[in-house]
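Look at a sample.

——
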Amino acid sequence: MKTWRRLVAAIVIVVAALSGSVSVSAHADLVQTTPANQAVLDQSPPEIVLTFSEAIDPVEPAVRVVDADGNEIDLGSADQSRGSDTLGLVVDEELADGTYVVAWQALSADSHNIRGAFTFSVGEASATRSGLVDELFTSSNESPGGAVPLAIGRFASYAGIAVLLGGLFAATVLARPQLSTRRVGRLLFLGLGTAAVGTAMMISAQANMIGSSLLDWPTVAATRSGQWWVLRLAAILAFVPFVVWRHRLLSRIGGTVTVAAGLGLLAIVTAGGHGVTGRWVPIGYAATVAHLAAMTIWVGGLTLLVIGLPRTRFWETANRFSPWALGSVVVLAVSGTINAWRQIGSLDGITDSSYGRWLIVKLALVTGVVATAAITRRLLHRGEVSSSANVPALSAAPGPTSPDPESSTSTATRTSVIVELVGIILVIAATSGLVNSPPPELDQPTNEIVSVVQGDRVAQVELEPAVTGGTVMHVTITSPGGGLDRADEITVTAELAADQIGPIEIETIPASPNHVIANNADFPVAGLWTIEITARYGEFDQVVFSIDIPVET
């Protein structure tokens, strides 16, 4: 029971960590619009077309067009007749002179939500109503509360699949006599149930974000990633007969069918995520399948050792599992390196994106787990040598006897395996964080840092990076002389005067004295934005800073 409590505690810690995840932008990017952003046309355009860097799925309402006063221009639903990487509207009525705002939203191939806006004018530009772009996004049907359930669902799905497939493999290859036991059966059903519930949670969370409710699965199933998620759930449930009749897997045919079904499930999982996006997709797809397979073998073997076997079988099975664990580590390292370079492409992408920061966390955890695995292998070797030394030279025993399960070496080895398994749980959590974050653009946008002096105070604004659609903003107030009163409150607004957008209030959280952070500062349109910072000191004293900072698409 202590082992189960440790595992439950580890899972609770992971879930709590995931609940603090910040929202992210998406992998597919808007690369071109017709008309161009801020273009002034002599006459009404025949169509409005948005072109993205990769295939996307429209999320209704995919494209909305309003005039400068916010009146909706009914042009029907956007279609993808010009290609899967486009959204297009036919303008079948003459647009009157003035400025128009085009707001859009879609789903990228790796399941991330994306949205944005741009403007164009006919005849002569006109001022848009203050707060108009904000209102368009506020009226979107996306629910911001879906990101955390989606991340937790991904974690549960990955962990459950690893226990299910890895447990089947490990029990069949390493501990055949135990495969039919009730203990192993409970372990496999735990993995299957966790995987099914986690996947269903993913679909429901996505349905709540892009559809009408948690039960709006048809909307999710209409997207590329959603189709693979539904297929993943069906493939997981298809393993029920494999678990119920697992004793039949010992035959050559049963084993072959199980391996094929397991690889098929991993291929389906890969097709619904980052494995089908970025550069070198065929290489990335193969590397991701290999990565998942190695992960399931490692997780399955460790879980079987800790939960699925009696102590009397631990030492023998641990020795058999050792070379498989070493091979899994090698495959994980090689495939992970390939995918990291494929998606990031530069060292800057590691520190300047949520994807890169999750990668750093995962690498740190993997390093710790590999170090623990090395300790486990050393303990196994020490126990095997000690066991062999205790066998008489003329003994007819077929091999080394198992050391006493209660011996210090055996206890230390089991403890090391438990630590290794908890570490793997954290690695899976980091993997779910990676999948929940979009890979950075290969041509990484630059950060912008701008400062302004007001009296004896300096305000500095940093955007990481300076892009539309959501970014990280740091606002810091300092003094050239070093001494400075602590501001009681710091508020931030943003305005794009050229397009009459704003002022938009940017929600910040305190990071330290005179330093606030906005984890998702949303600049909907590219241009030279004016950031206004108000620092309040006491009841009657305040200082206002105004900073112009460029934002790219």
User: Anything to note?
Assistant: Residues 145-390+402-436 form one domain. The CA atoms of residues 382 and 409 lie 8 Å apart.
